Amino acid sequence: MLLTVSTTHQPATDLGYLLHKHPDRVQPFEQSFGTAWVFYPEATDERCTAALLLDVDPVQLTRSRKQTVDFSLAQYVNDRSYAASSLLGVALARVFSTARSGRCPSRQELADSPIPLEITIPALPCRGGADVAHRVFGPLGWTVQADPIPLDDRFSEWGDSRYVRLHLTGTVRLADALNQLHVLLPVLDESKHYWQGPDEVDKLIRSGSGWLANHPDSALIVDRYLARREFARLARARLAELSDSVTEDEDEDVHLPAPPLNQLRHDAVLGVLTEAGVHSVIDLGCGSGQLLQKLIPSAKFTRIVGSDVSARALQHAARRLRLDRMSERQTERIQLFQGSLTYEDERYAGYDAAVLMEVIEHLNPARLPALEHVVFEAARPGVVVVTTPNSEYNDRYEGLVGMRHPDHRFEWTRREFAEWTHQVAHRFGYLVHHRGIGDQDAALGSPTQMAVFTREAGVS
Protein backbone atom coordinates (compact mmCIF):
# COMPACT_ATOMS: atom_id res chain seq x y z
CA MET A 1 0.00 0.00 0.00
CA LEU A 2 1.23 3.46 -0.92
CA LEU A 3 0.78 7.07 0.17
CA THR A 4 2.56 10.09 -1.34
CA VAL A 5 2.88 13.63 0.02
CA SER A 6 4.01 16.37 -2.37
CA THR A 7 4.62 20.10 -2.04
CA THR A 8 5.50 22.98 -4.35
CA HIS A 9 6.59 25.24 -1.49
CA GLN A 10 10.02 26.52 -2.47
CA PRO A 11 12.52 25.21 -1.80
CA ALA A 12 10.36 22.09 -1.97
CA THR A 13 13.11 19.91 -0.55
CA ASP A 14 12.36 21.49 2.84
CA LEU A 15 9.77 18.72 3.00
CA GLY A 16 12.66 16.47 4.08
CA TYR A 17 13.29 18.67 7.11
CA LEU A 18 9.60 18.71 8.06
CA LEU A 19 9.32 14.91 7.78
CA HIS A 20 12.75 14.34 9.38
CA LYS A 21 13.59 11.98 6.50
CA HIS A 22 16.46 12.76 4.10
CA PRO A 23 15.45 12.95 0.40
CA ASP A 24 18.62 11.17 -0.74
CA ARG A 25 17.95 8.01 1.27
CA VAL A 26 15.65 5.02 1.12
CA GLN A 27 14.82 4.21 4.73
CA PRO A 28 13.14 1.02 6.06
CA PHE A 29 11.13 0.95 9.32
CA GLU A 30 10.18 -2.43 10.72
CA GLN A 31 6.59 -2.86 11.91
CA SER A 32 4.95 -5.79 13.68
CA PHE A 33 3.05 -6.51 10.46
CA GLY A 34 5.72 -5.84 7.83
CA THR A 35 8.11 -3.11 6.69
CA ALA A 36 7.45 0.56 5.94
CA TRP A 37 9.71 2.30 3.45
CA VAL A 38 10.20 6.05 2.99
CA PHE A 39 11.72 7.36 -0.22
CA TYR A 40 11.46 10.38 -2.51
CA PRO A 41 10.46 9.75 -6.16
CA GLU A 42 11.21 13.43 -6.89
CA ALA A 43 13.15 16.05 -4.94
CA THR A 44 13.80 19.39 -6.62
CA ASP A 45 13.53 22.98 -5.43
CA GLU A 46 10.27 23.30 -7.42
CA ARG A 47 8.53 20.10 -6.32
CA CYS A 48 9.24 17.37 -3.81
CA THR A 49 7.36 14.12 -3.17
CA ALA A 50 7.79 11.78 -0.22
CA ALA A 51 6.38 8.26 -0.51
CA LEU A 52 5.42 5.90 2.30
CA LEU A 53 5.28 2.31 1.03
CA LEU A 54 4.02 -0.36 3.41
CA ASP A 55 4.95 -3.94 2.57
CA VAL A 56 2.63 -6.09 4.67
CA ASP A 57 3.73 -9.59 5.66
CA PRO A 58 0.49 -11.64 5.87
CA VAL A 59 2.06 -14.17 8.22
CA GLN A 60 3.34 -11.50 10.60
CA LEU A 61 -0.04 -9.77 10.47
CA THR A 62 -1.88 -12.98 11.33
CA ARG A 63 0.42 -13.70 14.25
CA SER A 64 0.07 -10.16 15.62
CA ARG A 65 -3.73 -10.08 15.52
CA LYS A 66 -5.64 -10.26 18.79
CA GLN A 67 -9.09 -10.05 17.25
CA THR A 68 -11.18 -12.90 16.00
CA VAL A 69 -12.01 -12.82 12.31
CA ASP A 70 -15.25 -13.26 10.44
CA PHE A 71 -14.23 -16.53 8.84
CA SER A 72 -11.15 -18.73 9.03
CA LEU A 73 -9.63 -17.82 5.65
CA ALA A 74 -10.00 -14.07 6.31
CA GLN A 75 -6.65 -14.21 8.09
CA TYR A 76 -5.02 -14.99 4.77
CA VAL A 77 -7.48 -13.86 2.08
CA ASN A 78 -7.87 -10.10 2.49
CA ASP A 79 -6.86 -6.77 1.00
CA ARG A 80 -4.44 -5.69 3.73
CA SER A 81 -1.37 -6.03 1.53
CA TYR A 82 -2.78 -3.86 -1.26
CA ALA A 83 -5.21 -1.23 0.05
CA ALA A 84 -4.64 1.59 2.54
CA SER A 85 -6.18 0.93 5.94
CA SER A 86 -5.52 1.30 9.66
CA LEU A 87 -2.23 -0.52 9.01
CA LEU A 88 -1.04 2.40 6.91
CA GLY A 89 -2.36 4.81 9.53
CA VAL A 90 -0.33 3.09 12.25
CA ALA A 91 2.81 3.00 10.10
CA LEU A 92 2.38 6.69 9.24
CA ALA A 93 1.98 7.60 12.92
CA ARG A 94 5.15 5.75 13.91
CA VAL A 95 7.38 6.70 10.99
CA PHE A 96 6.43 10.39 11.03
CA SER A 97 5.90 10.77 14.80
CA THR A 98 8.12 13.85 15.11
CA ALA A 99 6.52 15.49 12.07
CA ARG A 100 3.06 14.87 13.55
CA SER A 101 4.09 16.75 16.69
CA GLY A 102 4.89 19.82 14.62
CA ARG A 103 8.48 20.01 15.86
CA CYS A 104 11.23 21.01 13.44
CA PRO A 105 14.07 22.98 15.11
CA SER A 106 15.76 23.78 11.81
CA ARG A 107 12.55 24.96 10.09
CA GLN A 108 10.13 25.67 12.97
CA GLU A 109 8.48 28.67 11.31
CA LEU A 110 7.76 26.53 8.26
CA ALA A 111 6.44 23.68 10.43
CA ASP A 112 4.01 26.14 12.01
CA SER A 113 2.77 27.43 8.65
CA PRO A 114 0.29 26.03 6.12
CA ILE A 115 2.03 25.00 2.89
CA PRO A 116 0.67 23.72 -0.44
CA LEU A 117 0.27 19.94 -0.20
CA GLU A 118 -0.92 17.13 -2.45
CA ILE A 119 -1.67 13.73 -0.96
CA THR A 120 -2.42 10.67 -3.07
CA ILE A 121 -3.53 7.20 -2.02
CA PRO A 122 -4.04 4.92 -5.06
CA ALA A 123 -6.31 2.37 -3.37
CA LEU A 124 -8.33 3.17 -0.26
CA PRO A 125 -11.33 1.24 1.13
CA CYS A 126 -14.14 3.76 1.53
CA ARG A 127 -17.29 2.36 3.10
CA GLY A 128 -20.19 4.56 2.02
CA GLY A 129 -18.55 5.58 -1.24
CA ALA A 130 -16.73 8.68 -2.39
CA ASP A 131 -19.26 10.91 -0.65
CA VAL A 132 -17.89 9.88 2.76
CA ALA A 133 -14.38 10.91 1.71
CA HIS A 134 -15.72 14.36 0.76
CA ARG A 135 -17.60 14.62 4.07
CA VAL A 136 -14.60 13.92 6.28
CA PHE A 137 -11.82 15.70 4.36
CA GLY A 138 -13.73 18.61 2.76
CA PRO A 139 -14.41 20.61 5.98
CA LEU A 140 -10.70 20.47 6.82
CA GLY A 141 -9.78 22.71 3.89
CA TRP A 142 -8.93 20.02 1.34
CA THR A 143 -10.05 19.88 -2.26
CA VAL A 144 -11.10 16.25 -2.50
CA GLN A 145 -11.01 14.00 -5.53
CA ALA A 146 -12.22 10.49 -4.75
CA ASP A 147 -12.50 8.39 -7.89
CA PRO A 148 -14.29 5.04 -7.47
CA ILE A 149 -12.29 2.07 -8.74
CA PRO A 150 -14.27 -0.37 -10.93
CA LEU A 151 -14.55 -3.97 -9.82
CA ASP A 152 -13.25 -5.00 -13.24
CA ASP A 153 -12.52 -2.72 -16.19
CA ARG A 154 -13.64 -5.50 -18.54
CA PHE A 155 -17.12 -5.77 -17.04
CA SER A 156 -18.63 -2.32 -16.55
CA GLU A 157 -21.99 -3.87 -15.55
CA TRP A 158 -20.37 -5.10 -12.35
CA GLY A 159 -20.12 -1.49 -11.15
CA ASP A 160 -17.65 0.04 -8.76
CA SER A 161 -15.74 -1.60 -5.92
CA ARG A 162 -15.63 -0.21 -2.39
CA TYR A 163 -12.21 1.31 -3.14
CA VAL A 164 -11.39 4.84 -4.29
CA ARG A 165 -8.31 6.61 -5.54
CA LEU A 166 -8.00 9.55 -3.17
CA HIS A 167 -6.28 12.78 -4.15
CA LEU A 168 -6.22 15.72 -1.73
CA THR A 169 -4.92 19.21 -2.46
CA GLY A 170 -4.84 22.13 -0.07
CA THR A 171 -2.76 24.62 1.88
CA VAL A 172 -2.45 22.89 5.24
CA ARG A 173 0.13 22.61 8.01
CA LEU A 174 1.97 19.31 7.45
CA ALA A 175 1.52 18.12 11.05
CA ASP A 176 -2.24 18.66 10.73
CA ALA A 177 -2.34 16.74 7.46
CA LEU A 178 -0.52 13.74 8.94
CA ASN A 179 -2.72 13.67 12.05
CA GLN A 180 -5.85 13.89 9.93
CA LEU A 181 -4.68 10.95 7.82
CA HIS A 182 -3.82 8.95 10.95
CA VAL A 183 -7.41 9.31 12.16
CA LEU A 184 -9.34 9.25 8.90
CA LEU A 185 -7.73 6.28 7.13
CA PRO A 186 -9.31 3.76 9.53
CA VAL A 187 -12.50 5.87 9.57
CA LEU A 188 -12.96 5.43 5.82
CA ASP A 189 -12.06 1.75 6.01
CA GLU A 190 -14.25 1.38 9.14
CA SER A 191 -12.06 -1.46 10.28
CA LYS A 192 -9.06 -1.78 12.58
CA HIS A 193 -6.52 -4.56 12.51
CA TYR A 194 -5.70 -4.38 16.22
CA TRP A 195 -7.46 -4.65 19.57
CA GLN A 196 -8.62 -1.33 21.03
CA GLY A 197 -7.94 -0.38 24.64
CA PRO A 198 -8.92 2.70 26.67
CA ASP A 199 -5.80 4.55 25.47
CA GLU A 200 -7.37 4.74 21.99
CA VAL A 201 -9.53 7.62 23.23
CA ASP A 202 -6.45 9.62 24.21
CA LYS A 203 -4.86 8.85 20.84
CA LEU A 204 -7.94 10.13 19.04
CA ILE A 205 -8.16 13.33 21.13
CA ARG A 206 -4.45 13.97 20.64
CA SER A 207 -4.45 13.40 16.88
CA GLY A 208 -7.70 15.32 16.50
CA SER A 209 -6.47 18.35 18.45
CA GLY A 210 -7.46 21.58 16.72
CA TRP A 211 -9.81 20.10 14.12
CA LEU A 212 -11.93 17.17 15.30
CA ALA A 213 -14.02 18.87 18.00
CA ASN A 214 -15.62 21.31 15.55
CA HIS A 215 -15.78 18.97 12.54
CA PRO A 216 -19.39 18.79 11.29
CA ASP A 217 -19.13 14.99 11.09
CA SER A 218 -17.22 14.47 14.34
CA ALA A 219 -19.80 11.92 15.55
CA LEU A 220 -19.30 9.82 12.40
CA ILE A 221 -15.51 10.00 12.80
CA VAL A 222 -15.57 9.07 16.48
CA ASP A 223 -17.96 6.16 16.02
CA ARG A 224 -16.00 4.71 13.12
CA TYR A 225 -12.58 5.23 14.66
CA LEU A 226 -13.60 3.74 18.01
CA ALA A 227 -15.35 0.47 17.31
CA ARG A 228 -16.33 -0.01 20.97
CA ARG A 229 -19.39 2.02 21.92
CA GLU A 230 -18.23 2.79 25.46
CA PHE A 231 -15.04 4.37 24.09
CA ALA A 232 -17.02 6.37 21.55
CA ARG A 233 -19.25 7.72 24.32
CA LEU A 234 -16.22 8.77 26.34
CA ALA A 235 -14.60 10.45 23.34
CA ARG A 236 -17.75 12.44 22.59
CA ALA A 237 -17.82 13.58 26.22
CA ARG A 238 -14.19 14.71 26.02
CA LEU A 239 -14.73 16.51 22.71
CA ALA A 240 -17.77 18.31 24.10
CA GLU A 241 -15.45 20.34 26.31
CA LEU A 242 -13.43 21.48 23.30
CA SER A 243 -16.14 22.22 20.74
CA ASP A 244 -18.79 24.83 20.12
CA SER A 245 -21.37 22.04 19.92
CA VAL A 246 -21.63 18.28 20.13
CA THR A 247 -23.76 15.80 18.29
CA GLU A 248 -25.31 13.34 20.67
CA ASP A 249 -26.82 9.99 19.84
CA GLU A 250 -30.47 10.19 20.83
CA ASP A 251 -30.47 6.47 21.61
CA GLU A 252 -27.59 6.71 24.08
CA ASP A 253 -27.04 8.56 27.33
CA VAL A 254 -23.74 10.39 26.90
CA HIS A 255 -23.84 11.88 30.42
CA LEU A 256 -23.22 15.42 29.21
CA PRO A 257 -24.71 18.71 30.36
CA ALA A 258 -26.92 20.45 27.82
CA PRO A 259 -26.03 22.88 26.38
CA PRO A 260 -22.39 21.73 25.99
CA LEU A 261 -19.95 22.69 28.72
CA ASN A 262 -17.82 24.73 26.34
CA GLN A 263 -20.80 26.93 25.54
CA LEU A 264 -21.63 27.30 29.24
CA ARG A 265 -18.08 28.47 29.92
CA HIS A 266 -18.25 31.13 27.23
CA ASP A 267 -21.65 32.30 28.44
CA ALA A 268 -20.42 32.50 32.04
CA VAL A 269 -17.35 34.55 31.12
CA LEU A 270 -19.42 36.83 28.89
CA GLY A 271 -21.84 37.33 31.80
CA VAL A 272 -19.00 38.34 34.16
CA LEU A 273 -17.61 40.85 31.65
CA THR A 274 -21.05 42.33 31.08
CA GLU A 275 -21.76 42.61 34.82
CA ALA A 276 -18.40 44.31 35.38
CA GLY A 277 -19.21 46.96 32.78
CA VAL A 278 -15.82 46.67 31.08
CA HIS A 279 -15.17 48.11 27.63
CA SER A 280 -11.76 46.70 26.65
CA VAL A 281 -11.05 42.97 26.88
CA ILE A 282 -8.01 40.84 26.08
CA ASP A 283 -8.44 37.08 25.75
CA LEU A 284 -5.11 35.57 26.82
CA GLY A 285 -4.78 32.20 25.11
CA CYS A 286 -7.64 32.95 22.73
CA GLY A 287 -7.20 29.77 20.67
CA SER A 288 -9.50 29.74 17.65
CA GLY A 289 -11.35 32.88 18.79
CA GLN A 290 -14.61 31.44 20.13
CA LEU A 291 -14.91 33.97 22.98
CA LEU A 292 -13.88 36.85 20.73
CA GLN A 293 -16.67 35.88 18.35
CA LYS A 294 -19.19 36.21 21.20
CA LEU A 295 -17.83 39.63 22.25
CA ILE A 296 -17.99 41.26 18.82
CA PRO A 297 -21.81 41.68 18.54
CA SER A 298 -21.96 43.80 21.72
CA ALA A 299 -21.17 47.48 21.12
CA LYS A 300 -20.28 47.75 24.83
CA PHE A 301 -16.93 46.12 24.09
CA THR A 302 -15.10 48.85 22.23
CA ARG A 303 -11.70 47.13 22.14
CA ILE A 304 -11.38 43.37 21.70
CA VAL A 305 -7.98 41.69 21.53
CA GLY A 306 -6.91 38.06 21.33
CA SER A 307 -3.44 36.70 22.01
CA ASP A 308 -2.07 33.17 21.71
CA VAL A 309 1.32 31.50 21.60
CA SER A 310 0.24 29.46 18.55
CA ALA A 311 0.38 31.14 15.15
CA ARG A 312 -1.83 28.38 13.79
CA ALA A 313 -4.53 29.10 16.40
CA LEU A 314 -4.46 32.78 15.45
CA GLN A 315 -4.92 31.86 11.81
CA HIS A 316 -8.01 29.85 12.77
CA ALA A 317 -9.24 32.81 14.84
CA ALA A 318 -8.80 35.22 11.95
CA ARG A 319 -10.83 32.91 9.71
CA ARG A 320 -13.51 32.42 12.37
CA LEU A 321 -13.85 36.18 12.87
CA ARG A 322 -13.63 36.85 9.11
CA LEU A 323 -11.17 39.65 9.67
CA ASP A 324 -10.42 39.82 5.95
CA ARG A 325 -14.06 40.78 5.29
CA MET A 326 -14.36 43.43 7.99
CA SER A 327 -14.41 47.15 7.32
CA GLU A 328 -11.48 49.30 8.37
CA ARG A 329 -13.56 50.68 11.25
CA GLN A 330 -14.33 47.17 12.51
CA THR A 331 -10.72 46.00 12.30
CA GLU A 332 -9.61 48.99 14.41
CA ARG A 333 -11.77 47.55 17.21
CA ILE A 334 -10.40 43.99 16.95
CA GLN A 335 -6.80 42.80 17.07
CA LEU A 336 -4.93 39.49 17.20
CA PHE A 337 -1.28 39.05 18.10
CA GLN A 338 1.13 36.25 19.00
CA GLY A 339 2.71 36.20 22.43
CA SER A 340 3.69 34.02 25.38
CA LEU A 341 2.06 34.56 28.77
CA THR A 342 5.24 33.69 30.61
CA TYR A 343 7.14 36.68 29.17
CA GLU A 344 6.39 40.31 29.98
CA ASP A 345 4.89 42.13 26.99
CA GLU A 346 3.65 45.72 26.94
CA ARG A 347 0.87 44.68 24.55
CA TYR A 348 -0.86 42.88 27.44
CA ALA A 349 -1.35 46.12 29.39
CA GLY A 350 -4.09 48.75 29.23
CA TYR A 351 -7.27 46.65 29.31
CA ASP A 352 -10.25 46.77 31.62
CA ALA A 353 -10.41 42.97 31.73
CA ALA A 354 -8.33 39.92 30.86
CA VAL A 355 -9.59 36.37 30.37
CA LEU A 356 -7.63 33.14 30.90
CA MET A 357 -10.18 30.51 29.91
CA GLU A 358 -8.86 26.92 30.16
CA VAL A 359 -5.28 28.20 29.88
CA ILE A 360 -3.36 27.73 33.13
CA GLU A 361 -3.64 23.93 33.11
CA HIS A 362 -1.61 23.85 29.86
CA LEU A 363 1.42 25.37 31.62
CA ASN A 364 4.02 23.50 33.60
CA PRO A 365 3.42 24.41 37.28
CA ALA A 366 6.95 25.82 37.48
CA ARG A 367 5.93 28.49 34.90
CA LEU A 368 2.88 29.71 36.84
CA PRO A 369 4.82 32.37 38.83
CA ALA A 370 5.95 33.89 35.52
CA LEU A 371 2.33 34.03 34.31
CA GLU A 372 1.24 35.57 37.61
CA HIS A 373 3.83 38.34 37.23
CA VAL A 374 2.95 39.02 33.60
CA VAL A 375 -0.83 39.18 34.13
CA PHE A 376 -1.38 40.42 37.67
CA GLU A 377 1.70 42.60 38.23
CA ALA A 378 2.85 43.90 34.84
CA ALA A 379 -0.43 44.08 32.86
CA ARG A 380 -2.71 44.70 35.91
CA PRO A 381 -6.18 44.74 34.31
CA GLY A 382 -9.09 45.78 36.51
CA VAL A 383 -10.75 42.37 36.18
CA VAL A 384 -9.19 38.96 35.52
CA VAL A 385 -11.36 35.92 34.79
CA VAL A 386 -9.76 32.47 35.10
CA THR A 387 -11.43 29.12 34.38
CA THR A 388 -9.92 25.65 34.74
CA PRO A 389 -11.17 22.06 35.08
CA ASN A 390 -12.30 20.77 38.46
CA SER A 391 -10.40 17.49 38.78
CA GLU A 392 -12.85 16.14 41.37
CA TYR A 393 -15.58 16.09 38.73
CA ASN A 394 -13.53 13.76 36.53
CA ASP A 395 -15.10 10.84 38.40
CA ARG A 396 -18.31 11.62 36.50
CA TYR A 397 -16.67 10.90 33.13
CA GLU A 398 -17.09 7.20 32.54
CA GLY A 399 -13.85 5.48 31.56
CA LEU A 400 -11.66 8.60 31.91
CA VAL A 401 -8.14 7.69 33.01
CA GLY A 402 -5.84 10.57 33.96
CA MET A 403 -6.59 14.11 32.85
CA ARG A 404 -9.29 15.37 30.51
CA HIS A 405 -6.88 16.39 27.75
CA PRO A 406 -3.44 14.99 26.84
CA ASP A 407 -1.93 18.50 26.81
CA HIS A 408 -2.96 19.31 30.39
CA ARG A 409 0.02 19.57 32.75
CA PHE A 410 -2.17 19.50 35.88
CA GLU A 411 -5.80 19.67 36.98
CA TRP A 412 -6.73 21.10 40.37
CA THR A 413 -9.32 20.21 42.97
CA ARG A 414 -11.55 23.03 44.19
CA ARG A 415 -9.39 23.42 47.29
CA GLU A 416 -6.15 23.61 45.28
CA PHE A 417 -7.64 26.19 42.92
CA ALA A 418 -8.95 28.28 45.83
CA GLU A 419 -5.54 28.23 47.55
CA TRP A 420 -3.81 29.41 44.37
CA THR A 421 -6.31 32.18 43.63
CA HIS A 422 -6.27 33.54 47.19
CA GLN A 423 -2.49 33.73 47.33
CA VAL A 424 -2.39 35.46 43.93
CA ALA A 425 -5.08 37.94 44.99
CA HIS A 426 -3.24 38.69 48.26
CA ARG A 427 0.15 39.21 46.57
CA PHE A 428 -1.05 41.52 43.83
CA GLY A 429 -3.87 43.51 45.45
CA TYR A 430 -7.00 41.84 44.10
CA LEU A 431 -10.23 40.55 45.59
CA VAL A 432 -11.40 37.15 44.32
CA HIS A 433 -14.62 35.16 44.32
CA HIS A 434 -15.42 31.76 42.84
CA ARG A 435 -18.21 30.24 40.78
CA GLY A 436 -18.92 26.82 39.32
CA ILE A 437 -19.80 26.31 35.66
CA GLY A 438 -21.87 23.39 34.42
CA ASP A 439 -23.88 20.64 36.05
CA GLN A 440 -23.57 20.82 39.84
CA ASP A 441 -22.81 17.60 41.71
CA ALA A 442 -23.49 17.75 45.44
CA ALA A 443 -20.24 16.01 46.32
CA LEU A 444 -17.96 16.78 43.37
CA GLY A 445 -18.96 20.32 42.42
CA SER A 446 -19.12 21.57 38.82
CA PRO A 447 -16.96 20.37 35.92
CA THR A 448 -15.40 23.82 35.47
CA GLN A 449 -14.35 26.21 38.22
CA MET A 450 -14.06 29.97 37.68
CA ALA A 451 -12.30 32.69 39.67
CA VAL A 452 -13.08 36.38 39.13
CA PHE A 453 -10.33 38.74 40.32
CA THR A 454 -11.18 42.42 40.86
CA ARG A 455 -8.43 44.91 41.56
CA GLU A 456 -8.87 46.51 44.97
CA ALA A 457 -9.88 50.17 44.99
CA GLY A 458 -6.96 52.51 45.49
CA VAL A 459 -4.39 49.89 44.43
CA SER A 460 -2.62 50.97 41.25
Task: Write a concise synopsis of the structure shown.
The chain has 460 residues and is of the alpha/beta class. It has 16 helices and 14 strands.
Question: What order do the helices and strands come in, and which of them pair?
Answer:
Layout: E1 2-7, H1 14-19, E2 27-31, E3 34-43, E4 48-56, H2 58-64, H3 86-95, H4 97-101, H5 108-111, E5 115-125, H6 130-137, E6 143-150, E7 160-172, H7 174-189, H8 199-207, H9 218-225, H10 229-240, H11 261-276, E8 280-284, H12 290-295, E9 303-308, H13 311-321, H14 328-333, E10 334-338, E11 353-357, H15 368-379, E12 383-389, H16 414-428, E13 430-437, E14 448-455
Helix pairs in contact: 3-7, 7-9, 8-10, 9-10
InterPro entries: 3'-RNA_MeTfrase_Hen1_bac, Hen1, Hen1_N, Hen1_N_sf, Methyltransf_12, SAM-dependent_MTases_sf
Keywords: Magnesium, Metal-binding, Methyltransferase, RNA-binding, RNA-mediated gene silencing, S-adenosyl-L-methionine, Transferase
GO biological process, one term: RNA methylation
